[in-house]
Design goal:
This protein has 203 residues and is an all-alpha fold. The protein contains 9 helices and no strands. α1 packs antiparallel against α7, α3 packs antiparallel against α4 and α4 (95-117) runs antiparallel to α6.
Length: 203
């Protein structure tokens, strides 16, 4: 074989995404919150904030190693954690870390409802192909999730302004997640009703 006939090496492709166990994914999202709760009990809110930031970065790294990708919501949430956690430690003001859930939920709520208003639904990107619904199904599910996020933003504001820091940390760890899971499970009938069947147009 001459030099001109030598095979050309194929260009290196980016690593293909892998499927990660849903339970492992949930564990990686819950893990930093549990450590936040434990660290707050042992060292206070500022130690807990530092632990939370480190644990969040480690969880993102684990997601990337295991799945070769990071979902939108954990990535955005981690960015807000870094910003508001950094302000908390720099200014020694725990108001910033308490505002973090408010900002994240309000941001998701506004983006979902705003995308729907401009006829650019964003929820399918959040579910990342795990669920296939008709257009009407996505519209209704987006409205529900958008309102839910806004309600959770308001709820966080009420809680952190009304109770002690330790009680707020407990709510963030053991109240927010169960409410979110319960709401997600409650959407199962709607998702089943509007599930996109193979070969249908999704209209």
């Amino acid at each position: 074989m001459t030099q001109s006939q030598a095979p050309v090496p194929a260009p290196a492709s980016s690593p293909a995404p892998r499927k990660m166990s849903p339970w492992l994914k949930i564990g990686l999202e819950i893990g930093p919150l549990v450590l936040f709760f434990i660290a707050n009990g042992r060292g206070g809110i500022y130690v807990a904030t530092g632990v939370f930031m480190v644990a969040t970065l480690l969880a993102l790294g684990a997601m990337w190693v295991l799945a070769r990708r990071i979902a939108v919501m954990p990535l955005v949430s981690a960015l807000v954690v870094m910003v508001f956690g950094g302000l908390t430690l720099w200014l020694q003001d725990d108001h910033f870390i308490k505002l973090k859930p408010t900002m994240v939920n309000a941001l998701f709520g506004v983006l979902l409802l705003g995308g729907l208003y401009f006829k650019k639904p964003l929820l399918p990107y959040v579910f990342d192909g795990m669920v296939k619904l008709t257009e009407e199904g996505w519209r209704k599910l987006t409205i529900r999730w958008g309102i839910f996020f806004l309600v959770m933003a308001v709820l966080n504001e009420i809680v952190w302004r009304s109770v002690s820091t330790d009680t707020w940390v407990a709510f963030k760890t053991f109240g927010y997640l169960p409410l979110t899971f319960a709401f997600a499970i409650a959407q199962a009938p709607l998702m089943s009703r509007y599930e996109l069947k193979d070969g249908s147009s999704g209209k």
